[in-house]
Design a protein that fits this description.
alpha/beta; six-stranded mixed β-sheet; three-stranded antiparallel β-sheet; 37% helix; binds adenosine-5'-triphosphate; binds magnesium ion
C-alpha cells in the first residue's frame, strides 16, 4: 500500500499584526492509496488550514508534508490532485461548461476529451439542464455541484474536498456519496472534511478527529466506536470526545 498523503509533526500559526493563532500543533497522519479519509472536528479546529497546506496554498512553518510523494509546494504535486474549496466562489458570469473548460485548459486536457468529460461530469452531478446558465443565477447547492465537478475535471488520483456536502439536498448527497465510493473502486484517494457525521460514517474507510489543531483519534469508524457500546454513533462518540476536551 502506497502512502498518498503524509503529515509529520505539521504546525501552522497565523500571524496578523501582533496577534498569533496557533491553528495546527504538531499534526501527524497518513492516508493510503485507495482510501476514503474523513476529517472531522469543531469549527475552528484547523481542518481548512490542513487542507490549504496539503494544496500548497499555505506553507507550514514546521513539520513535513508529502502529497503523492512530493512536497505540495511543487506544482507537479498538484497535477493529479482535485480540490473542492469550502466556499464555491467562482466567477459568476461564467456558465458551468465555461468554468469547467477553463479548468480543463489549465490542466492541459485535450479539447475533445475535455468536452466529453465535462458532459459526463455535469450528468454525474445532475446539472445537465443548467450547463449553459450563468452561475450568478445558481442556488448554493447548485454551486456546490459545479464545484464538485470542477474538482474532478482532471480525473485526479487524490481528491481533496472541504465540506463537500454542505448545502446539498438528500438526493444530491447520496449521489455524491456514490461518486466518492466509485472513486475508491478505481483506486483513487479521497480526503474530505465534513460536519455531516452520518455522511462521514457512511462513506469513510478511516476518520481523523481534529480539535484545536490536534488530532484526538484516527482509525476506522467501527474500531473507534468499539464493539461494546451498542447503539453508539459517530455523532455520540464525537460529542463525548469534544465535550471531555472543553
Ligand atoms: N486567515 C486567517 N487569519 C488568522 N487566523 C485564521 C485564518 N484562517 C483561519 N484562522 C484561524 O485558524 C483556526 C483554524 O481555522 P480553520 O479555518 O482551519 O478551521 P476549520 O476546522 O476549517 O473550521 P470550520 O469547521 O469552521 O470550517 C481558527 O482559530 C481560525 O480562527
Ligand atoms: Mg473549514
Amino acid at each position: 500500500m502506497r502512502e498518498v498523503l503524509t503529515a509529520n509533526n505539521l504546525s501552522y500559526t497565523y500571524e496578523t499584526g501582533k496577534k498569533k493563532v496557533e491553528a495546527l500543533k504538531g499534526l501527524s497522519f497518513a492516508v493510503n492509496d485507495g482510501e476514503i479519509f474523513g476529517f472531522i472536528g469543531p469549527n475552528g479546529a484547523g481542518k481548512t488550514t490542513t487542507i490549504k497546506l496539503l494544496l500548497g496554498i499555505l506553507i507550514s512553518q514546521k513539520g513535513e508534508l508529502s502529497v503523492l510523494g512530493k512536497s505540495p509546494t511543487l506544482p507537479e504535486a498538484r497535477k493529479s490532485v482535485g480540490y473542492m474549496p469550502e466556499i464555491a466562489n467562482y466567477y459568476r458570469y461564467l456558465t458551468p461548461v465555461e468554468l469547467l473548460t477553463m479548468y480543463g485548459d489549465i490542466f492541459g486536457i485535450e479539447k475533445k476529451l475535455l468536452k466529453a468529460r465535462i458532459n459526463e461530469l455535469l450528468r454525474l452531478v445532475d446539472l445537465e439542464k443548467e450547463s449553459d446558465r450563468i452561475m450568478g443565477t445558481f442556488s448554493k447547492g447548485m454551486m456546490q455541484k459545479v464545484s464538485f465537478a470542477q474538482a474532478l475535471v482532471n480525473d485526479p488520483d487524490l481528491l481533496i474536498l472541504d465540506e463537500p456536502s454542505s448545502g446539498l439536498d438528500p438526493v444530491a448527497r447520496k449521489n455524491m456519496r456514490e461518486v466518492i465510493k466509485s472513486l475508491r473502486d478505481k483506486d483513487k484517494t479521497v480526503f474530505f472534511s465534513s460536519h455531516e457525521l452520518s455522511e462521514v460514517e457512511l462513506v469513510s474507510d478511516r476518520i481523523g478527529i481534529l480539535n484545536r489543531g490536534e488530532l484526538l483519534a484516527v482509525g476506522p469508524v467501527e474500531d473507534l466506536l468499539g464493539e461494546k457500546e451498542e447503539g453508539q454513533t459517530l455523532e455520540s462518540y464525537f460529542l463525548n470526545m469534544i465535550e471531555r476536551e472543553i
